[in-house]
Amino acid sequence: MTYENLDRELVNALLGDGRASLRSLGEDLDVSVTTVSNHLSDLEDDGIINGYTPKVDYGALGYDVTAIIQLKVEGSSLPDVTESLKNHKQMVSVYEVTGDYDIIAIGKFSDTDGMNAQIKELLTDPEIKESNTSVVLNTASENEQFDLDLDLDE
Predict the structure, then answer these.
(1) Which of 104, 92, 97 is nearest to 133 (CA)?
(2) Domain residue ranges of the chain, discontinuous segments joined by +
């Protein structure tokens, strides 16, 4: 196994079980605990692995409303509006995009009244020229990650 494949195998193993111990990772990948530890440190230092967090089912906690908010903003204000959205507690994703809108934000809310209040608060920003909000009716897939391809030629 090449070291590049080792890194990818390590990422894939952690995607399967983010709580796996260094020992079990080493056993699964047939390398020493020290090798796993060194590669894991490198992946963290390089920003490939950005932390270890639980996958939370917000719906099970009462955040049953998911909203997709599209915003048009003044060009020079894009970074400020994006930063403001990132700081809203219930915004789980914020993207600067191409197309008809400049920003797409995805938020989780306990009810439509809470969603409506946050959207109205957002729209008080004079830099936001236009908005469009869609409420998700059914979640087919969310927060999915995928295993990395391995270079099988090496």
Answers:
(1) 104
(2) 3-45, 58-135
